[in-house]
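Re: [ENG-882] Designed sequences occasionally contain unexpected residues at chain ends

Forwarding the minimal case from QA. Structure tokens:
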């Protein structure tokens, strides 16, 4: 919720807890949902304070670290881990390249 592209459900997928939380929602398991909610609130509070401190003292290093986390998480979520390159893979790669180009152009334009 703090970093772009990193949502609570993404964190649950990475931790392997997504199915457990969805089951708790479906079964209205308020004890488990309360524990998850308290953990989310504490994690959000502590992580936001830690990020604030990092950005104040070590902005460039913090951005590099967080970028590494984002890129490193691709291994867990990459949908084509066991299959050959197909049309869907090519389309996703094309969209990623287009997005990178648009970002580069907007950054260049904003400096003018």
């Amino acid at each position: 919720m703090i970093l772009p592209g990193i949502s609570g459900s993404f964190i649950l997928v990475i931790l392997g807890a997504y199915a457990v939380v969805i089951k708790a929602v479906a079964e209205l398991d308020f004890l488990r949902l309360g524990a998850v909610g308290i953990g989310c609130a504490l994690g959000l509070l502590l992580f936001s304070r830690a990020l604030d401190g990092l950005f104040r003292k070590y902005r460039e290093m913090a951005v590099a670290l967080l970028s590494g986390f984002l890129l490193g998480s691709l291994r867990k979520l990459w949908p084509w881990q066991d299959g050959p390159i197909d049309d869907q893979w090519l389309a996703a790669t094309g969209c990623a390249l287009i997005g990178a180009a648009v970002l580069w152009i907007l950054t260049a334009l904003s400096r003018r």
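QA comment: On inspection the terminal residues look reasonable. Residues 1-78 form one domain. Proposing we downgrade this to a documentation issue.
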